[in-house]
Amino acid sequence: MHGKLTGNVLTPHGWVSGTMYFNDRIAEVNGLTVNPDHNADDYILPGFIDLHVHGGGGKDIMDAGDAVYAIAKIHAQHGTTSMLATTMTSPPGDLEQALKAIGHACWERKPGTARVLGTHLEGPYINPDKLGAQPDYVQEATLAEVERLSALAPLKLITVAPEMSGHLELVRVLSNAGMRVQIGHTSGTYEDGVQALQHGASGFTHLFNAMSSFHHREPGMAGAALAHAQYSELIPDLLHVHPGAIKTALRAIPHLYCVTDSTAATGMPDGEYMLGRQIVHKCMGGVRLADGTLAGSTLTMDQALRNLVSLGLEIEDASRRVSTYAADHLGLHDRGRLIQGSFADVVVLDRQLNLKAVYVEGEQIGLTDMQFGATRLNGQ
């Protein structure tokens, strides 16, 4: 056993004041049930799981090559222990090159990086009227095309606008084949959303953003999510979604989980960056197209946790929404929880919820001292 951590350990059964032993997987957790408010020990939580990552550290997933490793490294430094590399709507050649690179990263995790679980295919199967920051290379989805792309890299999530021609039946086929299909970048109605869920759609992509909004006489796609979804992702940077809307979603959707939708600008100074084939501008904590449209974020998962707690969530609830529920959505039972046999994906936070240590499959990750600063070994 080469790893040992002591503190307030968040287990699936509650807080334990004790010790966790691990190698690449957790061997055991020993301790006594505790209220962590009654001591000053560190918090030991499951590593963060981000199912919507476009970039970071100046790199974009669509850059292909080794970009995915650079992105997985900077997100690991912020506590993300596993992630889905997320693509953009793009010309077919660009998408294929990006998927090939993601495929390599899935087969081999490099030291110091988060585990790349697979791909979130965000487009090209979306509605051209709800592109958001996606460039207009939209195409109709077909089973043959999805199967061809899935041979390049594991497709763990696919965002689809169900109202587009042929897409509703494809949602059923893909869901029956074991793929998770999310509803997003959609102008569909409430009824379209309900039908898509009945056909097997598993959730919604960045709830409220790039979808038909809620109105009390036309509840839209957002209304379908609030009324019927078990799972949905949401960007809690407090810019994409108002805190009041976040609280509404938290009450309505049992397994609402958080994503960053992070871009190349994450961890970088203000300036111009690429998001697929689009130029985006980072300024004052936001990322936008030239016309002001929000274009992803600079959020990291450790900040997402802090934002949730600032809205009034207990740490254990916030932890589930940046880790466990995402694992559950993908059907992963050995991540997102600190229990014997699970991967040793762990974050250690101080009492102010600042990162002190990160472990990916038992490997200690170097953390960044400051936003654009040097890397140090955890705890040194």
Task: Give structural notes.
26% of the residues lie in helices and 28% in strands. The protein has two domains: 78 residues, Urease, subunit C, domain 1 (Roll); 282 residues, TIM Barrel. It has a seven-stranded mixed sheet, covered by helices on one side. Strands 5-8-9-10-11-12 form a six-stranded parallel sheet. The longest helix has 16 residues. The two termini are 22 Å apart. About 2% of the residues have low confidence. It is an alpha/beta fold and 380 residues long.
List the SSEs and their pairings.
Elements: E1 3-11, E2 14-22, E3 26-33, E4 43-46, E5 48-53, E6 55-56, E7 59-60, H1 67-76, E8 80-87, H2 92-107, E9 115-122, H3 143-150, E10 155-160, H4 167-176, E11 180-183, H5 190-198, E12 203-204, H6 220-228, E13 231-234, H7 243-252, E14 255-258, E15 271-275, E16 278-283, E17 286-288, H8 301-310, H9 315-329, E18 346-349, E19 355-360, E20 363-364, E21 367-368, E22 375-376
Parallel strand pairs: 1-4, 5-8, 8-9, 9-10, 10-11, 11-12, 13-14
Antiparallel strand pairs: 1-2, 2-3, 4-18, 6-7, 15-16, 16-17, 18-19, 19-20, 21-22
Helix pairs in contact: 5-6, 8-9
What's this entry about, in short?
With 380 residues, this protein is an alpha/beta fold. The chain is built from 9 helices and 22 strands. Helix 5 packs across helix 6 and helix 8 crosses helix 9 (315-329).
Q: Can you tell me the CATH architecture of the largest domain? A: Alpha-Beta Barrel
What's the number of structural domains? 2
Count every helix, treating DSSP H or I runs of 4 or more residues as helices: 9
Helix content: 25-40%
Shape: globular
Structural class: alpha/beta
How big is the Rg?
20 Å
Low-confidence parts, pLDDT < 50 over ≥5 residues? 370-376
Give me the CATH superfamily of the largest domain: Metal-dependent hydrolases
What is the name of the CATH class of the largest domain?
Alpha Beta
User: Please, what is the average pLDDT?
Assistant: 93
| Biggest pleated-sheet summary | 7 strands, mixed
